[in-house]
Amino acid sequence: MKYVLVTGGVVSGLGKGVTASSIGLLLKACGLRVTAIKIDPYLNTDAGTMSPIEHGEVYVLDDGGEVDLDLGNYERFMDVKLTRDNNITTGKIYQSVIDKERRGDYLGKTVQVVPHITDAIQDWIERVAHIPVDGKEGPADVCVIELGGTIGDIESMPFIQALGHFSYRVGANNFCLVHVSLVPVLNVVGEQKTKPTQHSVRGLRSQGLTPQILACRSTMVLDENAKAKLSQFCLLPGENIITLYDVPNIWHIPLLLRDQKAHEAIFKVLNIKGMTQEPNLEEWTCRAESCDLLHEPVRIALVGKYTCLSDSYLSVTKALVHASVSCQKKLTVDWISATNLEDATAKENPDAYKAAWKLLKGADGVLVPGGFGDRGVQGKIIAAKYARENRIPYLGICLGMQIAVIEFARSVLGLKDANSTEFDPNTKSPCVIFMPEGSKTHMGGTMRLGSRRTYFQTKECKSAKLYGCKSFIDERHRHRYEVNPDLVTSLENSGLSFTGKDETGQRMEIVEIPNHPYFIGVQFHPEFKSRPARPSPLFLGFIAAACGKLDAVLQHSSRGVGSDIRAVKTYQNGSATKPHAYWPEHVYGNGNINGNGNGNINGNGFHY
Question: What pTM was estimated for this model as a whole?
Fold first, then answer.
């Protein structure tokens, strides 16, 4: 087993997760089997109870693991399925050691950070790295490990100590350290400054880890003078210093690594050159380049509670990007704080109220994602009502489905006090109720989590057609509340259609309004399984509906080909060719992309 460790220095937020994901993709493109591990030095057992505004989204895996959002990057880039054990936290490590101590496994010894915690970290890494990937027997060839935080953080020290021991444990030719560091450019002098990176490398060495490769984040390509300084003072050959400069979208990062021969530098350190091939990233290149050339816009209003931090909805925005690129549209996400749509805001902050409504009325589609707590719920209900009454494409995810049901009950059934018991425990018309098997005393890991099966009640509905007219699908869940089964008959008699249910038939999974251009709510989170080459069917249908192309997409999806559209090959003159015979020309145009799109998605590009 070979290991590639990715660390970060100088400042946080440099894009270690994207860098680690890109390294994994690049190695996989060279014919290697790759897995990944994320180390988070916080004391939480997992990310499940952490605020999205503080930490970003909670990413959910097939096995129900609530993990760091970087595992979503790994799964999207490398197209692998990971487990909860692929996310290591300080809380998990200490809990495992304390459990052993309570059982008497240490035979009366004094339990200490070194060696017991550090040994537990190494054992965990080695165990998880050898878990089979891609449904094949045997472990991966390479395990990419990302250490969260920044070198010098107090909470990271046990992990750095453990990883230093681990590098000796596995041997020099089995361990490669890639250090991601900042090379800032001071506007006053316009010069790239290498001192921060020099100090970061010195600090890393002082703790027992020696980087073999430097990945330097900068706004521009690293000049030769700066590269020579880093080579001299960090004791690295020039070919092992890579520049990760700002690009139009993050799909270019693996291409930057490939063009600067990062894979060859890694193979030299790991002594595996003979086992590999030249990286095959043709399809990935086509997608990255075509994304830059898109110029016809599609505007999506994302009405949420945590819109102050876009990472709170990272997988949702990535799924929107996957779908919009497949539909050859340039995505613009208008972030709308749900509270700004409410009447109270009209009185307290009329400018914010007017701005929010202007964005909502200018949208081609409305998306209401998941969330917890009653703040902003009324605004989400207002957004769902606006989309329903004005026949605007609507996609509701988790809470977004539940509030669509509440709005329908209030407006159509006439149940003015209809609500969820999450927001009003004493409501006389409980449309959404707490699930019987849920825990009311413990928060962490007690929701309905992970991959669950949904059975379509009819194959004539939009959602079934988008999934290729399958009898059932498996999608990832994360919720404590469900639609009240006692109200289902009344809702359906009034025009709401529950087209997907669980195996018991009592838990509602998908709701649709049949006589609407596109109004779908789902209890699960389809964004977690969306991939660049395989957009989520529901997101693809949503974007297609927002573009006026849904009928053609439904026609092709029902034949099992619509959700696997590949990015087109682009050339310098902006023309394109179709890579697959099944490319639906009348849906996606004639295969030509014209224009000078700048790749700015969500208004500010993919700078990370």
Answer: 0.89
